Amino acid sequence: MRTHLIPLFAAAAAAVAPCVAAQSGDANLARNLGATCTSCHGTNGVSQGGTDSLAGSDRADMVRKLKEYKGGIKPGTIMPQLAKGYTDAQIELIAGWFAAQPPAK
Fold it and tell me: What is the pTM of this model?
């Protein structure tokens, strides 16, 4: 094997790994995808202020909003950019995970 191709193969494997995990039924995939939201929306989706809490929110409503951000229908500062990085299936997983979390008290 040519050694100059090794970085290319490594990059390809890294790009394919999330897809394989999604298809393999990774039990933590939804949680792991949702973790990307916690810096703004709080641990497990319970905001400490400044942004909406996602924990316990209606799943269908979250899916609709994320798809509106993704499609450029709903304006925002960072959310349209972030939402474009997710597939529709990933959006469904994220919304389902946050909907299942205990809401903020």
Answer: 0.73
CATH architecture of the domain with residue range 27-99:
Orthogonal Bundle (1.10)
Contact 38, 44 (CB under 8 A): yes
Q: Where are the domains of the chain?
A: 27-99
Residues 6+ apart with CB under 8 A from 70: 80, 83, 84, 86, 91
In a structure prediction context, what are the per-residue pLDDT tens digits for the chain, which is 105 residues long?
Answer: 455 545 544 444 454 445 444 555 788 999 999 999 999 999 999 999 889 999 999 999 999 999 999 999 999 999 999 999 999 999 999 999 999 999 977
Integer Cα distance of 98 and 88 in angstroms: 16
